[in-house]
Write a structure and sequence with these properties.
8-stranded antiparallel sheet, 3-stranded mixed sheet, Protein Transport Mog1p, Chain A, 2 domains, 18 strands, alpha+beta
Length: about 475
């Protein structure tokens, strides 16, 4: 005879004969519950990356992006190919659906440029060079570049940098008035921000690049791509640029390369746990689009920023000599003075100060600095005793610069100078100029806790005498901010 056991709070009973089945069901249910518990834990283990301080609203991000995209598209050679743009938008929208933060009206356009690059404007306006499509081995690698750029937009890196720059330039009362402006064009004018068409030159800091890597990793993972393909593609570009410069250098000229990129991506993948399905890294659609793009007429040579789409001899674009009147530049790392007929591009630990026509298309798909000054921070390696000194760090930097500039040579010995109250090294280098002939590069290096600060002052060799005094005055004006 079967015995019955009433279930508490239940209107039915089960027999002893069915208890084994009940126990099996209970075990299965517990396992299912465990999966439900562990899934959020996997998400919780991800690195949390939050947008930084920002003066602007997310709606203003969109309005700024629209305004700037109109200017940028007057200088870019867009593909204007519905087949390519439709594919990029399908892929981009899928990736953006997993992006954190504001759900911007993301849009994606192909650029008829053979160099490997992509960039994002505030509010989700993204541009992808055809060279990036052609260089990717599979869809996951292309998705990695796009996911990385989506992360820049989602984390609001553009207006974050704009906010920090603006806060240093305007009193708080004026800031409130400017940010409250109903006209975005008026707002950009009021804050005096370098966020016009030259935004294509915007360089984010290495911290911003590292954040974009982490969030891009999460976006790829959630879209069933192997996120390690993103890091592998960037490393592939780094190897290519180190061997021969060429079109891969365009990406790193606007995207400072974080150290240990693959290591950090792999660490983030580990935090997200094991997958229950196999990565889908490639599609027939991607292979067809890559083949189709390769069949299109060759891309036109890139034009110098500020030169529009007109062609012509680069020497006709020789900028006026630097003004004797100087203006202030400052960020969270340092301050200095520079000629008031030059402009500032980029923010944070990577920026350029140059005349508007100081950039030259070098004929390889890259845009190079022919006149002006660039600054960045290099992370040197410690020696066997765990120490880093100024001379060895500078030597490591020059070796690294040679990787992308095979014609770079040191001219004479370095000399010790003082910059911002600190011991520094001044070195004179020569390199091939994008104008033809050689250029002189005056390299100033300062070792600080954050890394090796380096300033490269650039002018054609035959014109360097016209710039030497300006470069010396700029160097003398450098002051570091205590951190």
């Amino acid at each position: 005879m079967n015995r019955t056991f009433p279930l508490i709070s239940s209107g039915f009973t089960i027999t002893q004969r069915d208890q084994s089945l009940a126990r099996k069901l209970a075990v299965a249910g517990a396992a299912a519950m465990l999966l439900l518990v562990l899934a959020p834990l996997s998400i919780a283990q991800r690195t949390k990356v939050k947008p930084g301080w920002n003066l602007f609203s997310t709606q203003q991000d969109i309005e700024i992006g629209k305004e700037v995209s109109q200017q940028a598209e007057q200088q870019l050679s867009l593909l204007n190919d519905s087949k390519v743009d439709s594919y990029l938008n399908r892929l981009g929208q899928k990736l953006a659906s997993k992006a954190p933060g504001e759900k911007y009206p993301y849009q994606f356009k192909g650029v008829n440029d053979a160099s490997i690059n992509a960039f994002a404007l505030p509010g989700g306006f993204l541009y992808i060079n055809r060279g990036t499509i052609e260089a990717a081995d599979n869809e996951a690698q292309l998705a990695g570049v796009i996911g990385h750029e989506i992360a820049h937009a989602a984390l609001r890196h553009g207006t974050n940098q704009m906010s920090k720059s603006t806060a240093m330039q305007l009193p708080l009362a004026m800031l409130g008035s400017a940010v409250g402006s109903n006209s975005i064009a008026g707002l950009l004018t009021q804050v005096g921000a370098n966020f016009g068409a030259q935004s294509v030159l915007l360089k984010y800091s290495r911290d911003a690049e590292r954040q974009a890597d982490l969030v891009g990793t999460q976006i790829l993972y959630d879209n069933n791509y192997d996120p390690r393909q993103m890091a592998e593609f960037f490393m592939k570009l780094e190897k290519e640029s180190g061997q021969s410069g060429g079109r891969a250098m365009e990406f790193f000229s606007s995207h400072p390369n974080p150290q240990n990129r693959i290591t950090e991506v792999n660490a983030e993948v580990a935090k997200m746990g094991k997958r229950t399905s196999i990565y889908q890294n490639d599609t027939v659609e991607f292979r067809e689009i890559r083949k189709y793009v390769g069949s299109l007429p060759a891309a036109p040579k890139a034009q110098a920023p500020g030169s529009g789409k007109s062609s012509g001899n680069a020497r006709q674009q020789r900028p006026p000599l630097p003004s004797g009147r100087f203006q202030d530049y400052s960020n969270s790392y340092l301050s200095l003075r520079y000629p008031d007929n030059w402009k500032a591009y980029g923010q944070g630990d990577a920026f350029t100060l140059a005349p508007e026509s100081g950039f030259i298309a070098d004929g390889t798909g890259n845009t190079s600095l022919a006149y002006g000054t660039m600054m960045a921070i290099f992370e040197p390696h410690a020696n066997s005793s765990g120490r880093i000194d100024l001379e060895s760090a500078t030597g490591q930097l020059i070796s690294s610069l040679r990787g992308a500039n095979p014609n770079l040579q040191v001219s004479g010995n370095s000399s010790r100078i003082r910059v911002g109250g600190q011991q520094s090294l001044a070195s004179v280098l020569t390199n091939a100029s994008p104008l033809g002939g050689n250029e002189t590069d005056y390299l100033v290096t300062v070792l600080r806790p954050e890394g090796l600060y380096y300033f490269v002052f650039v002018a054609p060799e035959k014109e360097y005498g016209d710039y030497r005094r300006t470069f010396q005055d700029m160097t003398a004006s450098i002051s570091f901010i205590r951190r």
